[in-house]
Structures are given as C-alpha cells and as structure tokens.
Amino acid sequence: MLTLLRDLRKLRRTTALPPSDRGRSLAVRHVDCGSCNGCEHELTLASGPTVDMARFGLGVVASPRHADVLLVTGPVTTRMRDALLVAYAAMPEPRRVAALGDCALGVGVLGSDDQIVGPVESVLPVDLRIPGCPPTPDAIAAALLDLIDGG
Amino acid sequence: MTPPAHGAEAYREAVEAALADSWRFAGLHATRAGGGAAVRALLVSAAGDIRVESVAAGAGTVPTIVDLAPAAGWDEREAHDLYGVVFDGHEPLRPLVDHDVPLDRFATTVRGPDPYQVAVGPIHAGVIESGHFRFHVVGDRILHVDARLFHKHRGIERACEGLPLAYGVSTVARACAGCWVTNAVAYAQACEELFGQRPTPEVARARTILLELERVWNTLNDIGAVCAGVGLAAGNNRFLALTDEARALNARLTGHRFLFGSVSVGGSDLGLDAHATAAARKTLARIRRDSSRAWRELLFNGSFMDRMPDIGVVDAEAVRSLGVVGPAARAAGVPEDVRAVSPRLAYEGFEVAALRRQAGDVQARLEQRALELLPCLDILDRLLVGPVRPAATEAAGPESPIGVGRVESPRGATTCVVERDGDRVGRLRLRTGSYANWPAVAYAAADNLLPDFPLINKSFELCYACVDR
Fold first, then answer.
1. Residue A76 lies inside a defined structural domain of this protein
2. CA distances from B378 to B213, B270, B352 (A)
3. For A111, which of B154, B258, B260 is closest by C-beta distance?
4. Is residue B373 a contact partner of residue B382, using CB atoms and an 8 Å limit?
5. A121 in a structural domain
6. Per-window interface: A 55-114 vs B, CB < 8 A
7. What CATH number should be reported for the domain whose range is B5-88?
C-alpha cells in the first residue's frame, strides 16, 4: 500500500498542480439524463489525481439536498425528465444548473425525437454551459470554477 | 446470408436443433425491413459462424424461444415493447423498455412477513449512469433484484433507419463512449457484408489497434472501479491516473480521448507515422509497468482482497444458460472470446486467457481483467510496429440483404445486425456485451448481502448507455 501512496505522491509532484487560492467551494450533484457515458467518464477523472478538482473546493455530493449546482448530462430522455425535476426540486436555494456536454446543450443530438424531450434548458433554467463531446476533465473543472468566481 | 422464413413450428424446431447442435443464442430482434414483419434469432457456433432463423410475425404473434434459450428473455421483452410482437409461451412477458406501465408489472412479486423492498435510482449517489434497482431483501440479505433500465433510451436504432449505410456508423457507435470502437467496428463489419466486401490486412490491423486501445483504458478503469466499490481510494486513484494516461494516448493518436470518429465503413482513415507508433509503444510500456506495480499492491492488500472471494457467483452452468459473455464468462471457466474467431480482424494466434481459479465470483472477474490486460498490451506492441496507413476494403463475394458484425468489447461479445433497404439502413440491432450480461448481475446479487451489491455490480462494470440505446 505504501508503494501505491508513494506513486501517487510522485504523480502529484510531476503534474505540478497550482494550489487553490480561493476561499470558496461548490457542491455538485450530477444527473445523467441520457448521455453516452463519455461525460461521466471525464467527470470522474476531474475528481481523479491528475486534475483533482477537490483542491479548488469542487466536490461531487451524493444528494441534491447538499448541492449548490445540478450538473446535467445527456439530451434529457422522456424517461429521465421527471427524475430530473424531482432532483431540482430537492435542492436548497440559491441553486444553479449546469449543462455538461454537447447533448445537454442540444448540439448534434443523436436519437429519435419521440424519445427525447430536448436540451436541458427546455426543462430547467441553465446557468452554465460546458460544451464538448465530451469536455475534457480540465475543461469541466475550469468551467465549474467560473461558476465559483462569477458568483 | 438470406434468412430462411419459417412457419411458427419450424422456427422453434430450427432453433432447438441448432442449440442441440451446440450453437449458442446471440440475439433476437423484430423487424419490418424487407416487406412484412418478422422476428429473427441469431445463433453462433464455436467457430464463429453465424446463422439467422426467421419467423413471420404478420399476425403479431410468434412462438417464444425463451424456454430453449433463457438468454433470449430481454430480447423478446424488448421486441414486444418496441415492435408490439407477442411471444406465445413467454409468461409473464414483463415490460422492459416500456416505462408507461405500473412499476409492479416490472417487479417480481415477493410475499411473506419479512421481505421488504429497497428502491435505488434512477439517480445514483455517485457519478454513475441512470437506472433503477428494486431489491427484495430480508434483513441485509438480497432475495431478488429487479433491474429497470432503459431510462436512457434515446431511440438510437430507430434514428439510424433511413440513413445511408456509410453514415450510420457515427450514430450507432455514439450509443456508448466506453464501447465506441467496438460498436463502430461491429456496424462496419455488418455493412461490409451487405456490400460483399472484406477488410484487407491493413484495415484489419488499424481496427484491431483501435479496439485494443479501447480495451486498455476500459480495463484500467474497471479495475479502479472495483477499488472504488470497496472504498479503497488509493487503488482507485492510481488506476484513474492510468486511465487518464491511456485516454491521453488515444487523443495523441486519433485526436479524440474516446477514439470517436476513428472507424469508417469500407476502409480505415487511421494514419500514424513511425514516430507516432514508436511513441505509443513507449507509453504503453510505461502503462504496463505502472499498472503491474499497482496491481501487485492490490494483490498483497489483505483487507481489499478479503472482500472479493465467494460473493456474486455466476458459475459456468449459469453462464451458459443466461448467455453471459466476456471476462465474466471466462472468469467462470467458459473460454469464449470473439477475438479467437475473428478473421476480419488482426488477432492471429490469439489465445483465450484462462485463470487458475475460475470461480465466477467477484475475485475471479477482477483477476480475469488484470490477466487480460497483458495480452492486450502484447497485441498492441506487435501491431504498432511501423507506420499505419489509410486503406480500403476489398471485394469478397456477392451482396447480401442482411449483414452481421461481431466484436469482443471490453465487456464481451457485441453483435450488430444491419438489414438493408437499398443503400440505406432498413433495420439495425445492436446487442452489446453489457446487454447480454445485465440479467447475470441480478442473478449474481441474489443471496448476497445488500452492502456487497455495489461491489458485485462493479465487478461486471456494465454500461447502461449501450444497453438503453
């Protein structure tokens, strides 16, 4: 186990990540509304050791009740619309919604019209758009930081 | 390959005879392509030959084959929900894709004084895809779990219908980021069969490189996922870093971290000069060294390994009847791997990796992945010698009304059937390794403790996206 931890520490040194100088944090709840799983894979890596968005105060939380921002992926399928609204209703105010990835933004969506409600903004007010197919882990972390900095 | 149209009786007899002759069920779908509704069952032999048995579904009812091949259960339920076909003898024919019916029609009825239900999802606590699980438990022990997936159903297959055959690839492959290359190659193989084309060795080499690059990052990710499943942060983080490194290599080679856009119908556009392939081999050698070192650390971590044995067991008999594929089947001692029978790809001399301890439990599935990573890196090391140049497929025989592609994804055999309507897609069916294996997750969970479910689930690490489509 010590070898693993040493390897991780070495990795941390070689990536030379700058420390955060922000005194604020953002709790993120992710909701998958029909993605191809690409955005989820990259969001997971944004919390991994190479980007480590937690050092900027960005954390993924287990419940919408603990969340400042709802991070929504996918083109919003008819079968996920209600679950998305329930998650949004459970959030404390003030709350923000971020659309992650091109599908969530309604760009180049693949699928049948009768199975898809439309982009996230057709269901909820969107405060932050993160384009990309999928966006890279650094792009996800950088975009969420804008939300902290921009208020 | 022209599928012979059977009457109801002859269809069941043909399937029964094939299964008795050691053919295995490989998928079933309803279609309206080519005039008249029909249901087609796909069977595959040990040598990789594929046959299609069709039955006319004009009257809306066809006989079930679920009693002959339990693996057909989900396929028949899907064909009912999406195409309205009734399967005579499939009782109860529970909904699968259709969410507009009361939940109790999905869930198995469990009676008695002690059982209660635990409902999980569709939104999960982690960064996980959406899907609903209903656990019937007594105390901490799981009696039964009903998985209600298809929350992410986007109608991808329908969206492909009517597209020119060459363009369908970007739509069907995008069903899933984790299996993009697999899905794209399976579709390309199916279309090339329609056109009477076959890949040249250069096309086969390029596609095999891409498939194995996909397997590398998926395998690293899946080992990390098991660490996450037991809360071993150090192991999870180490393998996440390796996954990141593998995806960064994908981006350097093809311009995309998930290799999107790297496969096309009728040839390969992948071009890599000698510098690029040499650099890739160096990176892969580093990944081999670092992942072996990290894997050794996991093996000697007693508190981690003690969680693995004897839970979530799917033995060889269950693998055969449920139609389980991929590392999960091989971990139970069923040595089946599409790569061993893939003349359209560059897997010459491929041998199926076999564990010494083939217990079919969480430990065996984890160890099977770790074991398969090394030959996967060997294949890449062999194929990445010298530059890779764009190439086209070549004529091989007559055109066909229906084509089938079959590729080993990181999660098992993926089958893509394409029925043509002139030069367009008439009907497309994508049956991925994850689709074949989901029923096994529910089977594996029964009789285990509820807190072990995340670990059992992670030991399969199935996609939702390419199941729901």
1. yes
2. 11, 20, 13
3. B154
4. no
5. yes
6. 60, 62-63, 74-75, 77, 79-80, 83, 87, 110-112, 114
7. 3.30.460.80
The shortest C-alpha distance from A114 to chain B (Å) reads 8
Residue pLDDT, tens place only, B384-427: 999 999 999 999 889 999 999 999 999 999 999 999 988 999 99
Q: What is the ipTM of this complex?
A: 0.91
**Nearest-angstrom CA–CA distance, B287 and B223:** 14
Between positions 439 and 468 of B, the ones with CB within 8 A of A are 463-465, 468
Query: Half-sphere exposure of B60 toward its Cβ, with a 13 Å CA cutoff?
Result: 3
Confidence class of residue B92 from pLDDT cuts 50, 70 and 90? confident
Report the number of distinct structural domains present in chain A.
Answer: 1
By CA distance, what is A34's nearest residue in B? B152
What is the residue-averaged pLDDT of chain A? 89
Domain ranges of chain B: 5-88, 103-148, 176-430
In chain A, the residue whose alpha carbon lies closest to the alpha carbon of B303 is A1
Q: The domain spanning residue A62 has which CATH number?
A: 3.40.50.12280
Nearest CA in chain B to A39: B177
| pLDDT tens digits, B226-282 | 999 888 999 999 999 999 999 999 999 999 999 999 999 999 999 999 999 999 999
C-alpha B407, offset from chain centre: 9
Burial label for A9, CB within 10 Å (0-12, 13-18, 19+), is exposed
Question: CB contact, 8 Å: B176 with chain A?
Answer: yes
Within A16-71, residue ranges assigned H as helices are 38-46
Cβ <8 Å between B130 and A116:
no
Q: Return the residue matching tokens 């944090």.
A: A25
Nearest chain B residue to A28, by CA: B127
Q: What percent of chain A has pLDDT over 90?
A: 62
What CATH number was assigned to the domain covering residues B176-430?
1.10.645.10
pLDDT at A151: 55
In terms of residue numbers, what domain contains A136?
24-150
Q: Lowest mean pLDDT of B99-108, B226-235, B252-261, B310-319, name the range.
A: B99-108
